[in-house]
Design goal:
Blueprint (H helix, E strand, L loop, with lengths): L1 H5 L5 H20 L3 H16 L1 E10 L4 E9 L4 E4 L11 E2 L1 E2 L2 E2 L4 H8 L3 E3 L11 H10 L6 E7 L5 E11 L6 E2 L3 H45 L6 H18 L12 H13 L9 H4 L12 H28 L5 H30 L5 H12 L1 E4 L2 E4 L3 H7 L8 H19 L10 H6 L21 H16 L11 H13 L5 H9 L2 H4 L3
Antiparallel strand pairs: 1-2, 1-9, 2-3, 2-4, 5-6, 7-8, 8-9, 9-10, 11-12
The structure holds fe (ii) ion (FE2) (2 copies).
Pfam families: GAF (PF01590), HD (PF01966), HD_5 (PF13487)
EC number: 3.1.4.17
InterPro entries: GAF, GAF-like_dom_sf, HD/PDEase_dom, HD_domain, HD_GYP_dom
């Protein structure tokens, strides 16, 4: 900064105005959050300071050892080109090396490698650098590249992070192209350094954010991986959540007319959806995966099958013993033998029927009172093995077979529900920045119900923010529409809406949000 203060052609007023401008630019650069807008601002402000007709920005890509083209602005040609992600590259990147040798023929590459400013009065007269590229460009466009200022952008650690290239300085009054003056070199150098710091900060924030998201997505992937039955549940909940939030944003009528989630709020919601089931990391797999009533760490139905074979054998043995006794007592009445045989058959068939019934209950979606009554009757039956009296079904088996809906008993249901408490506990420990401060609330409330009968905190009504209600609907819809449940076929969307419609009537989910969900056809749009 001192060099231009000392310049003889600079009045105190000029210096004051420049300083003021530099401070303003510095503040604006550090306040800008969008990196593409930041690129634009840098070139625009540099061109304005130096009165340059054209400006190009390259950012150093250390992995590829190139200067990666970002922005080109050319006033005379009315050009404003930028490289966007996945878009065609409009200007070629500049190689920093040819094989092992540094690329000193290219002015930008030289400036980046040497960290030196280049001020070239006329590129056509230069014998030091190769300007055949710009000259070729000129021959196509009719432009005349003349004065050039190439400034390496150095950050707070004096590392070059990019190169700013300005072309054709113009005289204020005449518009004539002139070489870049010393004063303007100092100004642009100062700006480039402010810009480099702002860019480095933005890049660091982006990298940390990227790392954080990758970490969260890895955890979510691991949780989804824990249960083959739930597949990509979290990933799909994120998709549905964001689609419903978009529908809220696009809704220009009714209740959601006034609601609009800005970019930061969308980010906060997206992260909340990614983390909503993070507590499942503590849920044992055998409970998460329990798809049939008798499944525990192993499937107890096989134990029951073996037991019933044993019971059948014991019964057979008892009848054989009875037959032997009758023969020994020289019983001759055939009726007695026939009766005994009939009783044997009936007894064995009753055992087989009991087992078949148990198997049905084991996999049934619903078990009604009548079925539970029959299970109790079976459990009351006994057999004797090694002199010990044993029940046909033990209390654990009876309890689990008698589960009316689904496959979880009370204890297991409690273990499953505990994942929401764990989500709350785990996320409460994370020091979220201000813009993500509500992630814990949104994520941990996805099993709450509007009427206060949900879990873990039994929140109700206004205590449930719109974002939590969105995740709740996404979570229910995903669970009901999931393809892969061993005990249940994939439901038709009309059936899912019927079930969710009842949830709406019972005050479980937000009715207006659910109506918007149905109206917006999100179920089909997200392609589950
Ligand atoms: Fe959950
Ligand atoms: Fe979930």
């Amino acid at each position: 900064m001192l060099s231009f203060l000392e310049a003889s052609d600079t009045s105190i007023d000029d210096v004051g105005a420049h300083l003021k401008k530099m401070v303003e630019i510095g503040i604006a650069l550090s306040a800008e959050k969008n990196i593409d807008t930041l690129f634009d601002m840098i070139v625009e402000e540099a061109r304005a300071l130096a009165m340059a007709d054209s400006g190009t920005l390259y950012i150093l890509d250390r992995d590829r050892n190139v200067l990666s083209f970002k922005i080109l602005q050319n006033n005379s040609l009315g050009l404003h080109l930028k490289r966007t992600e996945n878009a065609e590259i409009l200007l070629p990147d500049v190689d920093l090396y040819h094989g092992e040798s540094p690329n000193y023929e290219n002015a930008s590459s030289f400036a980046a490698l040497q960290g030196k400013i280049l001020n070239i009065p006329d590129v056509y007269a230069s014998t030091t650098f190769d300007f055949t590229g710009p000259m070729k460009y000129d021959s196509v466009t009719g432009y005349r590249s003349q004065s050039m200022l190439v400034i390496p952008m150095k950050n707070h650690e004096n590392e070059v992070i990019g190169v700013l290239q300005l072309l054709n300085a113009q005289e204020v009054e005449s518009g004539r192209v002139v070489p870049f003056g010393d004063r303007c070199v100092s100004l642009v150098e100062a700006l480039a350094s402010q810009a480099a710091v702002a860019l480095t900060n933005r890049q660091l924030i982006q990298e940390i954010k990227k790392l954080f998201y990758s970490f969260i997505e890895t955890i979510a992937g691991a949780i989804d991986e824990k249960s083959p039955n739930t597949g990509d549940h979290i990933k799909r909940v994120v998709k549905i959540t964001m689609a419903l939030a978009m529908a809220v944003n696009e809704s220009n009528q009714g209740l959601f007319k006034e609601h609009f989630f800005d970019d930061e709020e969308m980010e906060e919601l997206r992260l909340s959806a990614w983390m909503h089931d993070v507590g499942k990391i503590t849920t044992p797999e055998y409970v998460m995966d329990k798809s049939t009533r008798l499944e525990s760490k192993f499937d107890r139905i096989h134990l029951i099958e073996t037991r019933f074979s044993l019971i059948a054998e014991i019964v057979e043995k008892q009848y054989l013993e009875k037959q032997v006794k009758l023969l020994q007592s020289r019983e001759t009445s055939s009726d007695i033998f026939l009766e005994l045989e009939k009783a044997r058959k009936e007894n064995l068939s009753s055992i087989h029927e009991d087992l078949a019934f148990i198997k049905t209950c084991h996999r049934a979606e619903f078990v009604n009172d009548k079925m539970i009554h029959r299970l109790n009757k079976i459990a009351e039956k006994q057999y004797i093995v090694s002199g010990k009296i044993q029940p046909f079904l033990d209390p654990w088996e009876l309890e689990n077979l008698s589960i009316q809906k689904g496959s979880l008993n009370e204890t297991e249901r409690h273990i499953i529900e505990n994942h929401a408490t764990m989500t709350l506990k785990m996320l409460s420990c994370l020091p979220f920045p201000k813009n993500l401060s509500r992630v814990t609330d949104f994520a941990a409330s996805h099993h709450e119900r509007l009427n206060g009968t949900g879990y873990p905190r039994k929140l109700k009504g206004d205590a449930l923010p719109l974002q939590a209600r969105i995740i709740a609907i996404a979570d229910i819809f995903e669970a009901l529409s999931a393809r892969d449940r061993p005990y249940r076929k994939r439901m038709e969307i009309s059936h899912i809406f019927e079930i969710m419609g009842k949830m709406k009537e019972n005050g479980h989910i937000d009715p207006d949000l659910f109506d918007l969900f149905v109206r917006s056809d999100i179920g089909k749009k997200v392609k589950l």
